[in-house]
Amino acid sequence: MKDGTSPGPKKSLGQNFLVSKAVIDRIIGAVTEGDRRPVFEIGPGRGAVTIPLAKSGARIAAFEVDGLLAARLRESLQKYPEVEIVDADIRDVDFDLEGKKRGWEEYAVVGNIPYMLTSSILIMLPEARKCARAVIMIQKEVGERILASPGRRDCGILSVFMQAYFRVERVARVKAGSFRPRPKIDSVVLRFVPEAIEGAPEDRRRFLGFLKAGFSQRRKKLSNLLTGPQEIDKKDFTRELGTVTGVDLGCRAEELSLDGWFTLFRGYLELMERR
Known about the structure:
Blueprint: E1 17-18, H1 21-32, E2 39-42, H2 50-55, E3 60-64, H3 67-76, E4 83-87, H4 95-101, E5 107-112, H5 118-122, E6 131-139, H6 140-147, H7 157-163, E7 166-174, E8 179-180, E9 187-194, H8 204-214, H9 234-245, H10 258-274
């Protein structure tokens, strides 16, 4: 890379580099909101967002799995002491722990994430308790599903899980031509702002597992998907669960409201604790 060229995109890492200044500006505005919170960046790539953020004086820790890109970006940003480029797979990163190491009481998160890692990265966010907001670029279809209200046919696991802990907002719709190389599909930028929603389960990982069971076969009724201890007959367990919660388990996962999921999960935990 001594000739000044940037490393080419790697298909194995799902790399598509954002080049639209208009979209970059929208992302930066949404993640900074004019304050001085430090920023964790997921996959900075060639620095489309990192560089203007650095120029604004932001403190940044950017995690990049591609060693060549990380090295080139680190070289480009040498004059910005508040910017740290870390060689790491974001799936191995604990944001709260990384923030504590740096003395950051709160932080923002920003990222243009590979489509193939969308779910695995997004489900990390509810566990990031010190995150003040996250601005994430994802596949349009997935983004629209996340925005769908629980209880609607087009909702899914991420709709319920993310809306249980965040106010989710659309920042921008992004055409495929905003990237190089150009992907086959459009994208959307979403902002996730933590919100204390009454009834939201404290045990977030267990709630996610419960949702995965409920959405595992979308055509089946919840009464056929939710199970208790192995020694308890499934029909007996779901019958009792329906009685305790007042939730009709004859419905399908996408038909249950957010409050319905909270009520059902509380009842599930109550029955499990009795066993």
